[in-house]
Amino acid sequence: MTETMKQAPTPSFLEYQGRFKGIFAWIFSTDHKRIGLLYLYSMLVFFSIAATLGLMMKLELIAPGRTIMGAQTYNSFFTLHGITMIFLIVVPGLPAVFGNFFLPIMIGAKDVAFPKLNLFSWWIYIAGAFIALSSQFLGDGAPDTGWTFYAPYSFKTGTNMLPAVTGAFVLGFSSIVTGLNFIVTIHRLRAPGMKWMKMPLFPWALYGTAWIQVLATPIVGITLLMVVLERTLQIGFFDPALGGDPILYQHLFWIYSHPAVYIMILPAMGVISEIIPTFARKTIFGYTAIVVSTLAIAFVGYFVWGHHMFTSGMSGVALYTFSILTFLVAIPSAIKIFNWVATLHKASIDLQTPFLWAFCFLFVFMIGGLSGMVLGALSANVHLHDTAFVVAHFHYIVFGGTGFAFFGALHYWFPKMFGRMYDKSWANIGLAIFFTGFNTLYLPMFYLGITGMPRRYYDYVERFHGPNIVSSMGAMLMITGLIIVITNLVRSARYGAKAEKDPWKGKTLEWTVDSPPSLENFEEIPIVTQDPYKYD
Amino acid sequence: MTDHTQIDEHRDDEGAKTGMWIFIFTELLLFGGLFIVYSVYRYLNPMAFHMAAEELDIFIGTANTVILLVSSMTIAMAITSIQLKRKRLTLILMGITVLLALLFLVNKYFEWTGKISHGIFPGSEILHQSSQGEILFFGLYYAMTGLHALHIIVGVTFIGYVMWLVKTDDVKYDDYVILENSALYWHLVDLIWIFLFPLFYLIT
Fold first, then answer.
1. Between B103 and B123, residue with greater pLDDT
2. What are phi and psi of B12, to 5 degrees?
3. Domain count of chain A?
4. Would an 8 Å CB–CB cutoff place B31 in contact with chain A?
5. 3-state class of A194 per DSSP?
6. Read out DSSP for A411-478?
7. Chain A interface disruption, residue of B11, B22, B127, most A CBs within 10 A
8. ipTM value of the model?
9. Cβ A188–B27 below 8 Å, yes or no?
10. Does B23 touch chain A if contact means CB atoms closer than 8 Å?
11. Minimal Cα–Cα distance from A242 to chain B, Å?
């Protein structure tokens, strides 16, 4: 900032005029806040596509037999739904949007360590998205393997797998670059006085996540590359006819994709750890325990991948080991739940929308987590493997956990990002409908799974009809809630009342800067002297 | 290293190097996936791997190992010479590194085309008549040395770019972190070859 800028009020990052104009001022901007919003808008587009696909699948399942689509269409729908939701939304979601926007501000920095690399990661993300989505329109029909690309089907099927697998590979790079950037940012750019144990919990969660992104993503990268080589050059990595082992593919795939589950959930836990003390007006209970459990989840999460493969014929020793480790990894998550609830104990809670999202998060995340324990138990797993129970479980975690935290974060930081408030009553109505719809959609699927309904089938026998109707009704209700929530936010970004600097009385650094922040966030880098959640 | 760490708004050498190290971790894990696959299949097919490895030319393999080790040395010497403000020497040493890398690729080219002319390549008739272990060995051979050669090409491009920066004085005695990073990357490429060489050529 030059001297002359100081006299006039500093323009916000939304109004700031740089070298480029119009849309180019955004897609060529290296400002971490604009990149965060670029990610947000792109994800909103992809999310509406994937959510529509999900709704169509539920409509197909409203009655037995062919309802609105055939088997092959259904297969490609759940494949695209999975690829989009996992690789384009949930894995990058919270770090790329809120991490980019708030990590530098929360640690008192003007930007991330490598701003150009940051913009580059968004471009790779868009490139990967287009490659992956092109699989729908080019070649011999849409991919039908599911998002896991299991061998040998992924190189035997005649459908257009190559762009889908390549797209996922490219998206991995974007994830690695973001993770690398965050690690260096946290190591190098914390404001003076912000010791490690004075750092807010969302940056801590991002730090744990970034390490998983950096250390796990290359494995899936090389695995997907092997599938590409297998398809194009007939190298027999996983083809039993050429001596390869398809089970090895599953191991390699889950070595990444299970830690990826923690890439999804750790930042969500970070968001909840921010929202709860703010609205409880209380220092968070057990700050150190939350930090340690974050790192413990990131670490132990590497060693549990085998629980996706309990029915693949592993040795008994491997089965017991993976099962025990799976139970172990639940402990740090439970510690966090305990800490959040203890923070609420005897607090003067302010029931604002972000808090309600966090509260719903606790409810659905507990259901998701506990049903995960059922699947982690060996004997129950054999019965429930590949049933609707699994689908219900991971939607409670991925959508219920990460999704609720994402919307909670959006409602929490919205005033800071856009400088405007949203309509609170519409936000609460939207949440209520969404929450009701969500549980109506996924709870019956637990029951369906236990009674034996397999996942990924477009058809079912008559006895599953009742719960499926309920579930499909829930899907429609949930989408209605979602539309209300998003419409309210989109409208408010334009017409909402102006927001103050600190509408929620938060104590972390992002509430000390303007809403929306100026280009450089801080005119002067703050000096941190106290713990992040200092109330009283 | 003392005044090296001073930070202005847009310069953080320590940060840039941390970033490079993390990137190198990711590269190691990328190859790690292939090394796991290699070890599993070698464990399952010890004899076939032994037989197949005899097809490879130890002479070319050894020559390439020496070439890469020397090139790693010259790029390290380039850093020392830029610290001593000897720009011309720096450029010469970097030039030698690039030439050695190209020599490596030429050797690789002759090695690969030799194999292919003998009908040993993925999907070929001859390979399909051999045992499954041999198919896997050559699949891994092409995939791993191919991916490694790709890294050589990226490394040469990177070093070439830094040479241009040295020439235009954008990299000089008090600001050479990008040269250090290109050298780190080059050492990584070297290191991976040090593992590939015994695993493919010396297991007979």
1. B103
2. -145, 90
3. 1
4. yes
5. coil
6. HHHHHHHHSB---HHHHHHHHHHHHHHHHHHHHHHHHHHHTTPBTT-S---GGGHHHHHHHHHHHHHH
7. B22
8. 0.87
9. no
10. yes
11. 6
Q: What integer pLDDT is reported at residue A146 of this predicted model?
A: 86
Distances (CA, A) of B135 to A91, A150, A243, B37, B197: 36, 21, 8, 14, 19
Query: Is A249 in the B-facing interface, judged by CB distances under 8 Å?
Result: no
Scanning A251-280 for CB atoms below 8 A from B yields 252
**Cβ of A215 and B26 within 8 Å?**
yes
Neighbours of B47 (CB within 10 A): 10
* Domain-located, residue A331: yes
Locate the chain A residue with the closest alpha carbon to B36. Answer: A252
Looking at per-residue pLDDT, the higher value among B57 and B147 belongs to B147
Enumerate the domain spans of chain B: 12-201
CATH number at residue A491: 1.20.210.10
Which positions ≥6 away from A183 have C-beta within 8 Å? Answer: A207, A210, A211, A214, B18, B22
- Give residue B13's pLDDT band: very low, low, confident or very high (50, 70, 90): confident
Nearest residue, CB atoms, B122 vs list A176, A235, A252: A235
CA–CA min distance A214, chain B (Å): 6
Q: Radius of gyration of chain B from Cα atoms?
A: 20
Length of chain B: 204
Q: Which residues of chain A have pLDDT under 70?
A: 1-9, 536
Residue located via tokens 């990584």: B188
DSSP per residue, A2-65? -HHHHHSPPPBTTT---SS-TTHHHHT---HHHHHHHHHHHHHHHHHHHHHHHHHHHHHTTSSS
Residue in B closest to A210 by C-alpha: B22
The verdict on B41 touching A (C-beta cutoff 8 Å) is yes
Query: A39 in a domain, yes or no?
Result: yes
Q: Which two tokens stand for residue A94?
A: 């919270």
Contact (CB<8Å) B22/A184 = yes
Domain membership of residue A279 as a residue range: 30-512
Task: In whole angstroms, give the CA distance from residue A397 to residue A371.
Answer: 10
Answer whether A104 touches B (CB < 8 Å): no
pLDDT at residue A161, as a whole number: 84
Of residues B18, B29, B122, nearest to A234 (C-beta): B122
The CATH homologous superfamily of the domain defined by B12-201: Cytochrome c oxidase, subunit III, four-helix bundle (1.20.120.80)
- Determine whether the interchain pair B45/A244 forms a contact, defined as Cβ–Cβ distance below 8 Å: no
* CA dist., res. A516 & res. A514, Å (int): 5
- Tell me, yes or no, if the pTM score tops 0.80: yes
Does residue A522 fall inside a structural domain? no
Chain A CB within 8 Å of residue B122 CB? yes
**Contact, B157 vs B98, CB < 8 A?**
no
Which residues in chain B have Cβ-Cβ distances shorter than 8 Å to A187? 15, 18
